[in-house]
Structure formats: structure tokens, C-alpha cells
Amino acid sequence: MKKRILLLAGGQSGEHEVSLMSARSVLAALPRDQFDVTPVVISKQGRWLPPTGTQRALESGEAPTGGDLVLHRVASAEGYDAVFPLLHGPMGEDGTIQGLLTLAGIPFVGSGVLGSAVSMDKVMTKQVLASAGVPQVEWRLALRREWRDQPAAVEARAAELGFPLFVKPANLGSSVGISKVSRAQYLAPALDLAFSLDRRVILEAMTSHKPREVEVGILGNDAPVASPVGELSFDAEFYDYETKYTEGRAEMHIPARLPREVAEQVRETALRAFRALDCAGLARVDFFYVEETGELYLNEVNTMPGFTTTSMYPKLFEAAGISYSELVTRLVTLALEER
Ligand code: ADP
Ligand code: MG
Ligand code: MG
């Protein structure tokens, strides 16, 4: 019997378009002799589109409006063997949709409520990983209300870290709302921007030198495996939105040109983080490697990484001998596996 799969794409976050691109790749790659796949696109307003709207959105690459309230449509997910929530960022990768699917009793690809929610929030991730002994840069949390009522206290926290530092909304991705602050006078606009996007903001010390950015893929549930390590190189102050999504701005190197023991440390640390955060199915774990000093810091864990055929995560597993189509098949199988 073919497995019936519901593929969710689009969604409300700034990564709506990225998700639709990934969905086209996954749709084309899930073997039709094993799977019967139905896509449903979620509009930017968070509503589920009917088949015609979904088809149109997949072709045009975006769905700004339209669709039905999720709560009216989620019952239609009944009868599917598994859901592939190919959604990035808030309301997709953060445990919300995972909670809905858990309540509905439908297995799904990727991490559950806990792993998704904790990994999405950069502060919670840091706290959990600190207790697992994972090396990370120094950081401080600030709340919107504190910035409004006691700005001096927030500024003092930033001063403890020194400049340059990074200011980031705690629950976003794709570098949206992130600033590199080189001097105290640029701190306030960076905080205003980050707080316009999130109640929780993380201040992070910058690595001692511009870091090399290395990434590793994890695949599995309770017995996860790590891919080879990859590296992204680019010519910009940091890996900002424009550099991420402008064709030709960043270059992928697989395997990363790293000393063997550093690559091993990356893989081992990523597996430790995956377990500590209670992730499942897949994750791309991103690190900073400071070549000058040999320091290695875990930066973040992405529980639903970019998934086009040219994205880092599938490329990392391709380098390990697992084709794109084998990879998506394996992910659905992992979703159906008893845990
Ligand atoms: P996102 O989840 O939006 O990808 P990241 O935390 O990965 O956010 O930050 C985006 C980019 O900003 C990183 O890829 C890196 O280029 C730069 N960056 C972020 N934090 C630091 C830091 N502490 N030190 C140096 N560079 C950083
Ligand atoms: Mg991220
Ligand atoms: Mg990142």
C-alpha cells in the first residue's frame, strides 16, 4: 500500500518563498511507487489553500492571501499516514504546527513540539546546550519591556559583552532583524529593529575574529547520524539576508577544508546538541570556527533547514552517498517509525 503524505509548504514566516522552493523539490523527488503526495500551501496569512490555490502558489512561488482557517482544515489531514511540514521559522518550525499535528494524532517529519520550540528560540537553545557542555559565544537576554522601561540596564548588559556584538530577535531565521553592532551608538537602532520583530532579543558577543561558518546535517531519531561537514564562504560583513538569498553571493564547500579533528569535533558536538534538544528526523547544526585561535562554537540548530535540491542539508547527505530522493524517503520513514 502506498503511504499517503500531506506536504505542507509556504507559511507565515519571512521564509515563505524558500519553503515553496523546497516543496517543489520534495514533491518531485518522493518516489511515486511508494508515496501518494498531496501538497497544501499555507498562505502568508496562515490559511490553508484549497488544491487550485495550492497549485497556483507552487507555480508562482508565493501565496500572499487566501485559504481557510487552519482549524477548519486540519480535519482534512486525517487519513494521511504522515505530514511533511516543510515550513521554516515561526508558525512552522517552532512547535506550533507540530502541536496541532500531535493533537490530531498524525505522524510528521522532523522534531516534535519540544525540540522544535527550544531549537527555534536562540536563548532557550543556548541555555539547554550550555547545560550539555556545548561551547557557545557569550550572550545576554533582553525583553521588550526592559528595553522600553529600563534601557540603561539593557545597554549595560551589551557593554558586558563588548563591541562588536550581534543583536538578534530570539525567534527568527534567514538573518531577518539581525544587526552587527560595531559601536555603542548603533546599539539602540539595532535593538529597536529586533524588538519590532520579537518580544525576546538575544545579544551575542562576536567571535574573536570573523568566523568560518561550518554546517553539518543530522539524520535519524534516537540513533542519529551526522553528515560530512560543509562550509559557506562569502564576501560580506556577516551572512545576512542578501548574501543568503542572492544567487552567487555565497559558495558551498563540501567537505569543508578543516583539520580532521575539527571536523570530527563538529560532528560529535552536533550529535550531542541534537540529543540534548530532543530533536528528531533531521536538523542542520551550524558552527563558527575561528581559524586563528582554533575555537569552535555552536551557533544554532535548524530543525527544518532549507530543502531545495541545491540546499546545504541535502548536499551534505549527497556527499555521504544518500541521494535527494533517498533522503526524503528516509525522512518519511523516520516519521512513521515508533519512538
Ligand atoms: P539565523 O537564524 O537568522 O540564520 P544566525 O544566528 O545564524 O541567525 O546569524 C546569522 C549570521 O550572522 C551568521 O551566519 C553569522 O554570519 C553572523 N553571526 C551571528 N552571530 C554571530 C556571532 N556571535 N559572531 C560572529 N558572527 C555571527
Ligand atoms: Mg536559523
Ligand atoms: Mg543561521
Output the keywords.
339 residues, alpha+beta, Rossmann fold, D-amino Acid Aminotransferase, Chain A, domain 1, Dna Ligase, domain 1, 13 helices, 24% strand, binds adenosine-5'-diphosphate, binds magnesium ion
Shape: globular
Radius of gyration computed on alpha carbons:
20 Å
Give the % helix: 25-40%
Mean pLDDT: 96
> Counting H and I runs of at least 4 residues, what is the number of helices?
13
CATH architecture of the largest domain: 2-Layer Sandwich
The small-molecule ligands in this entry are:
adenosine-5'-diphosphate, magnesium ion
- Through-space gap between termini: 22 Å
What is the domain tally? 3
Q: What is the CATH superfamily of the largest domain? A: ATP-grasp fold, B domain
What is the fold-level CATH name, i.e. the topology of the largest domain?
D-amino Acid Aminotransferase, Chain A, domain 1
The CATH class designation of the largest domain is Alpha Beta
Encode the helix/strand succession as letters. Answer: EHEHHEHHHEHHEEHEEEHEHEEHH
Quaternary state of this entry equals: single chain
What share of residues are in beta strands? Answer: 15-25%
Structure description:
There is one protein chain. By secondary structure, the chain is an alpha+beta fold. The protein folds into three domains: 3-108, 3-Layer(aba) Sandwich (Rossmann fold), CATH 3.40.50.20; 119-135 and 209-336, ATP-grasp fold, B domain (D-amino Acid Aminotransferase, Chain A, domain 1); 139-205, Dna Ligase, domain 1 (2-Layer Sandwich), CATH 3.30.1490. The chain is built from 13 helices and twelve strands. A five-stranded antiparallel β-sheet has the order 10-9-8-11-12. The chain has a four-stranded antiparallel β-sheet with strand order 4-7-5-6, sandwiched between helices. The longest helix has 17 residues, at 260-276. The chain is globular, with a radius of gyration of 20 Å. The structure holds adenosine-5'-diphosphate and magnesium ion (MG) (2 copies). The site of one magnesium ion has 2 residues, from loops. Residues 173, 300, 302 line the site of one magnesium ion. It catalyses: 2 D-alanine + ATP = D-alanyl-D-alanine + ADP + phosphate + H(+). Its cofactor is Mg(2+); Mn(2+). It is found in: Cytoplasm. Residues 126-333 form the ATP-grasp domain.
